[in-house]
């Protein structure tokens, strides 16, 4: 079971966000951030992606000279950037929803996002 935070907005609807590591943020970085309307963070990560590509190109050239320092730095930098997105992605998305007027309605244990939303809807129907 996973833990989900349920956020509700009177017009925009309901969102369920998993608590913990975000694999989509880790693997897709700035693309995921733009899809979640995290514009500033997405722009920063897009810039960092260009830096990673540049470092990787420089690392490949340095490997031809049998110097692995630049390659190691490029690998550590790229991994660190992606890990930071994965670790903090869901927290950043939650904070952005709160700024956009969503309210944190509930914390639910469920196997996936759809199950969490269904449990929340069922609990709301029982409360009415």
Can you give a write-up of this model?
With 128 residues, this protein is of the alpha+beta class. It has one domain (2-127). The protein has helices spanning 23-35, 39-64, 69-99, 113-127; strands at residues 2-9, 13-18, 103-110. The chain has a 3-stranded antiparallel beta sheet with strand order 2-1-3. Helix 1 crosses helix 3 (69-99). The protein starts with a strand and ends with a helix. The mean pLDDT is 90.
Strand order of the largest sheet: 2-1-3
**Low-confidence stretches at least 5 residues in length (pLDDT < 50)?**
none
Major sheet, described briefly? 3 strands, antiparallel
Strand content: 15-25%
Structural class: alpha+beta
Judging from the principal axes of the Cα atoms, what is the shape? elongated
User: What is the rounded distance between the termini?
Assistant: 27 Å
**Total strand segments:** 3
Rounded Rg: 19 Å
Report the helical percentage. Answer: 55-70%
Please write out the topology.
Elements lengths: L1 E8 L3 E6 L4 H13 L3 H26 L4 H31 L3 E8 L2 H15 L1
Q: Could you name the key traits of this structure?
A:
single chain; about 130 residues; alpha+beta; 3-stranded antiparallel beta sheet; 4 helices; elongated
What would you say about this model in short?
The protein has helices at 23-35, 39-64, 69-99, 113-127; strands at 2-9, 13-18, 103-110. The protein is α+β, with helices and mostly antiparallel strands and 128 residues long. Strand 1 (2-9) and strand 2 (13-18) form a beta hairpin.
């Amino acid at each position: 079971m996973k833990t989900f935070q349920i956020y509700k907005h009177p017009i925009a609807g309901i969102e369920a966000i998993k608590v913990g590591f975000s694999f989509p943020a880790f693997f897709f970085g700035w693309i995921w951030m733009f899809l979640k309307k995290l514009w500033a963070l997405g722009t920063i990560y897009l810039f960092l992606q260009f830096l990673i590509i540049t470092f990787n190109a420089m690392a490949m050239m340095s490997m031809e000279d049998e110097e692995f320092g630049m390659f190691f730095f490029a690998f550590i930098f790229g991994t660190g950037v992606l890990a930071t997105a994965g670790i903090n992605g869901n927290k950043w998305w939650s904070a952005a929803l709160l700024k956009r007027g969503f309210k944190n309605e509930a914390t639910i244990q469920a196997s996936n996002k759809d199950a969490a939303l269904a449990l929340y809807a069922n609990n709301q129907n029982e409360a009415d």
